[in-house]
## 1
Amino acid sequence: MSLVELKHVTKNYQMGEMSVRALKNIEIEIDEQSFVSFVGPSGSGKTTLLNLIGCLDKPSSGEVFVNGKQVNNFSNKESALFRGQHLGFIFQNFNLLPVLSAYENVEYPLIMVQNIPAKKRKERIMHYLEAVGMADQKDKYPSQLSGGQKQRVAVSRALVTDPKLVLADEPTANLDHVSAFKVIELMRQMQHDFKTTFIFSTHDPKIVKEAEIIYTLEDGEIVDKEIATL
C-alpha cells in the first residue's frame, strides 16, 4: 500500500467572484521511505499540494489518502489529531518559537499532541537532538543559533513524534550553500535511519539532485515525473 495517494484531485480557490484553479486532476502515489520533490515555478501548485497531503487544506474534488486513511473527509479536529500522530513539518522560515530553547522547541509537539511521560519525553528529545548534532546547543534560544542550526532543530522537532511522513516547504531557501547541503545530508540520513518519507516543495537544485522521485508542476498540473538514478 502506498503511503500517500491522490486520486483525481482538483483544488479551486474563490477570489471574489472568480474561481482560480490551483490544482487540476492530480494523480500521485508515493511509497514509504521515499525522498520526493515537487518542483515548478511559483504559483504552479507545489505548496497547495503539500497542504492537501498535510491535512492543512481540503481538495475541491478527488480523494487524498495518507497512511491508509482517506484524510480529505476529516473534520478539523480529526485533521489536527492525524497531523500530530503521523506527520512532521519543516518550514522555510524554521517556525521555531523564540521564547523557547532548542530543547523546548523540540519538546513542544510532544506536550501539545502526544501524552508522553517526562522521562521518556526527555530520552526522545535528546535522541533526536543528538541525531542532528544539536545536543550541545539544546539550551540556546533561536536568536542565538545560525540559520543552519535553526533548521537542524526544526528537523529534530519534525521527527520527534516518530512520523511516517515529513513535509517540507522550501526548507533550504533561507540557508547558505554549506548549511543547505548539511541539512539535506541530514534528512537523507534520517530517511535511512528512521525509514521516514520526505516530500519537499522546492526550487533548490541541491534538493532536486538528491530526490529519488521528481514531480514537475505547471499551472496546477503534473507535467513530468522523473525517477532518478542515485
## 2
Amino acid sequence: MLNDPNEAPYRKRAIERILQGKKENKIKNYLPYYISILRLDDKTCIAAFECEVVTDYGKAIKRLFREDVITLGYSNSISCYIPTRKVLTEGGYERESFLNAGIAGVFVPEIEEIIIGRTALMINNNR
C-alpha cells in the first residue's frame, strides 16, 4: 500500500504510523468497544454503539427482539467503521478503516457475532 501511487496520502500516513508503532511495540491488535443500553420502558430501549457501525448491525438486532430497539451509531467515539463479516469479505473502505483506528490489522470475522451477541445479552439483562 505504501508503494501504490494510487493510494491516498492520508492512508499512507496511517500505514506509516502503524508500522512505526509496531517497531516501538506500541501498536495494539484490538479496539476497546463500548455498547450502551438505555431502557426507556418495558418495550423500548436504545442500543448505542461506538464508531460508525454498518446498517446490518441495527437490522440484525431489531430482528432478534419483539420490542422496539432503537440503534445508534457514532455514540461515545468515532475512530473507524465497524464492519460485518460480509463487509470484511467484500472489502472496500469500511474493511480498511482499521487504519484510522491505529490497530494492527483488519477486524476478525467474528466481530459481528461478538457485537450482536453482547448487545442481545445486555438488552435481555436490562429488562
## 3
Amino acid sequence: MTRLTVALSGDCMATRGALITSDPAAVELRELLRAVDFAFTNLEVVPSGSRGHPVHNAAGGGCLIADPRVIDDIVAAGFTVLGCANNHALDMGVDGLLGTVDLLNARGVPFAGIGADLTAARRPVYVDRPGGSLALISCSSTFLPGQEAAAPSPDTPGRPGLNPLRYTATLDVTAAQMEGLREIDARTGLRARRAEARTLLGFDPALPSAERLVLFGTRFRVADEPGFATECDRTDLDEISQWVREARDRADLVLVSVHSHEPGPTPEEPGEFLRTFAHRSIDAGADIVVGHGPHFLRGVELHRGKPIFYSLGNVVSQIELADHVPAEDYARVAGPRTPGRYFAELTGHGRRLFAPHRRYWESLIPVLTFDDGALVEARLHPIELGFGRPVHRRGRPRMAGPADAERILTSFARLAAPHGATVTVGEARTGELALDVPHRAPDAHRAGHGGYTSLP
C-alpha cells in the first residue's frame, strides 16, 4: 500500500525573515509541515528584488515585492511545493515574473502556474518523494488584462505570464429593466458614440442581440428574475482539464491550485464559475482542489470523494512589512515617503483593511492522508497569525490555542455545511473532515470516470 500525506495552506505573503518563530506553537507547525510528504502554499509575492519594474494599479491594490531570501525562509518553514498563479505574480512586470521563475529554478523549489509562455504556465510540476509523487497545476481567475500567459504564433514569441482561468459575468434583468438600460444608453449619448464602431463592424458591439446588452463594461441579459451569473471560459476550462488528465497518468496524486478573489452570493461563498471549475478538475482526475485569494476561509466540499477547499485564507501575511513601495502607491497617501509611514496611513493606523478584522489572521492547515490514491483521513489544524499584535509581530503562523482553535473550527463547519460537508471538532486543537471513504477501481479513476461506491 502506498501512503502519502499532503499539507495545504493558503496565501503566503512573506516579506520578512524567520517565518517560524521560537514560539513552541510555531515550532509545532513547522514540525507538522516537515512531517508530511508534500507541503503546499501559494506564493503571493514577487521575490525578484530589483529585477523588473512595478506595475501601476497592480490587481489587488498595490505591489507585493520582496527580496529573494524570502524563498529560503519559506522552504525553511517546511513548504515544499509552490503555486505561483495569482494577481500579484506580475507586480514587477514580465521581467519580475521571469525573475521568480529563475530564482525558484536556481533554488530547486518546485512550482507551477507561471512561465515564459502559456504552455509553460499551464503545465504541471512533478514532485517525487521516496513514497510517491505529486503533480501540481496552478491557475488564477484574478489578474489584470495582459498578465495571462499567451502562446507563440508563427510570427511572434509567446508572452510570459500566469495560467489564466477566465470567466464571464452576466447580470440578469427583467424586460422592463432592460428597456430602462437601453433608454440610458440612448439618452446619455453612449449609443451615438459607437457610430464609428457600427460603421467598421457592421453591427453595434454593445447590442449583440435583442435580449442582450453590454453597457458600462457589464453584460446584461433578459431573464424572468434579476440575478448574477458567472461562467468559466470554455477554452481555459478545457485546456486546464487536459493538463489534469495528463498529470493523472504521471503522478500518484494530482493537486489543482486556484487563486480566486471573486465572491458568490456572499463573500464567504465561491463564485459559481469556481465551483464548476473545481468539479471539472476532480472529474478530470484531480485528487485535491485548493483555493485561496479572498484572504479568509471559505467552505469545503467533497466531490466524488475528493476535497475542494474553496479558500484557505492566509498562512503568512506580512503585507505591511514590505520594504519596496512603488511611486504610485506612495502618491496615495500624504506624509514622508517611507514604507512604514505608507502602510500606517493606508491602513488608518490599524483601523481599516485587514488589520482590525480577526478572520484575516486565522486559518487552517488541512493534512490529507491517501492510501493508494484514496483519501482516508483529513485532519484540520487551526492556525493564527497574531491578530491584534504590533505590525512587526503579526503575520507569522503558529498553531492556534484551544479557545481559538474551537472557534475557527466551529466557523469552518458552518461554512462547510452548505456544501454538504461535515467538520467535527476533535481533541488536541484539531478537527476532521468527515469522509464517506470511497472504494475505487484505479483504472476507472485514472480514466477520469466514476468508480466510486460508499463503504459502511
## 4
Amino acid sequence: MKKILLTFTMALVSAAASAQDLKGTTIYDRIGHGQDSIDVLGSLSLYQESFKSQEYLEALEPWEFVFQKAPLSMIRVYTDGAWMFETLIQKETDAAKKKEYFDKLMKIYDQRLANLDALNSFATPKTTSTKGNIICRKAYDYYYFCPSMDSETAYKMFKEGINDMGPNTEAFVLYAFMDCSYRRYMANKTNIDIRQEFIQDYMLTNDICDRLLEQAKEYPSETIPADPESEDSTKWVEQIKLHPEAEKIITAYQPTQTQANDLFVSSGAADCEALERIYSAQVEANKTNLEYLNAVLAILNKFECDKSNIYYTAADYAYQINKTPQAAIGKASRLLKEDDVEGAIKYFDEAIELETDEAKKAKYSYIVAALMFKQGKISQCRQYCRKSLQFNPSNGDAYLLQASCIARMATGDHLQKSYYYCLATDYCNRAKAVDPATAAKANRQAATYASYYYPKSEAFFAGIKAGQKVNVAGETTTLRLR
C-alpha cells in the first residue's frame, strides 16, 4: 500500500510540476496536508485501481471521498466520475437507484463548473475546458439519462452551451441538440415561435457542420497514383487518402449533418406553405428591416421555398432597400419561375458581383452552373463551374458537375465514348483531392463511369493498352479498361 501511495504521489507531483499555470498552488494545496493528504491519496489510489478494472461499484466510495474532500485534486476525478455514473445508470434496473446515480452525475457537472477556473489553473492544454463545453456535456447527459427528462430544460442547457462553444461544439452534442429541438417541436407543432426556433436550430447546426467540413479541406490529402497494369482493378484509378485530421472531422460531422437533415425533413417544419404562412405577415411588418428580410430569404432559399410569393416579396423589399446578393438571388428566382432564364442569369451575375465573400461567390456561380446543366447548356455549365473554382478551388461539387457534363458529352463509337468517361473519372478524382467531403459521391459517380470503359477483351485484339494517354474534349486523360 505504501508503494502504491508513493508511486501515485510522485505521479501527482510530476503532473503538477508540468502544469502551465499553477498560480501558486501546489499538489498539497489541492489534497490537503498531513493525515488529510494521506487519506485523499489512499482514496485516489483505490478508486483508480477499481476504475481501471471497470469495477465501478467498488470505485464509488473512495471516488466520492476524493470528490467531496479534495475537489481540486485532479481533473480526472470529474471525467472518471461522469463515465462511471453514465455506465451505472445504463446498467441499473432499479428506478430509485437510477435517480440516485443521475443526481450525482449532475452534481459532478455543477461542482466542475463552480471550480472551473481553479481546475483550469493547473490543467494541461488537452485537459483545459470551458464553461460551454461542460454545459454541453451536462445537457447531453441530462437529455439521455434523466429519469424524468424535461425537454424544455434540456433545450435551454443545449442552447446555452452551444452559444458559448459555437463552431467548437462536438458532433455528438450537435446531434443530441437537434434531436431535442426536433422532439420539442413535434410536441408543439402549432406553436409558431417553437417552429421558428426549430428552423433556426437546424440552420445553426448545419452551419457549424458546413464550417468544420470546410476546415477539413485545408488538410493535405495523399494521392496514390493509378496503376493500370495492376491485377487489382481498384488500383487502376488514382486513389485519394485523406489526412487523419480531415478524416476525423468528416467521420464525426458528415453523419451528424446527414442525421440533422433527416430529422428536419421528417419533421415537416420546412413545408413551404407553412413557412409562407409564418413569414407572410412578418415580412410585411419588417419590409424596411434589411437584416430580417435577408434572414427570411436565407431560410426560404435553404429549404427550396424560393418559388413562393413571400420569397419574391421579401426579395423585392430587400432589393429596394439595398442591392444585396440575397435580394438579387431572390429576383433571379422570380424570373426563373417565369421561364426568363436570361433575365435570371443577369441577377445571378449581379449577386456574384455584389458578394464580397469568396465562398458565397463560388456558391452562386455553382447555382448558375447547376441551372445551366438542367437546361442542357453544357458549355455554359462548365464555364460557371470554372468560375466557381476560381473563387473556391476546394469546391469538389464543381468538379463533379463537370464530370457529369463530360459524361453527357460522350459521342462516337464505344472506344471514343470511353475516353469521355475516363476524363469524367479524372474530374471525380480531382473532386476528392480538393474536397474530402465529396469522396463518397465521387466514388459512386466514378463507379458508374467505369462501367462504360472499353472492355479489356476487345482492347487486347485491337492492340489497345490501359494507361495510354488519349485526347478528348480538348483535354488529355489516361485510358482505363474494364
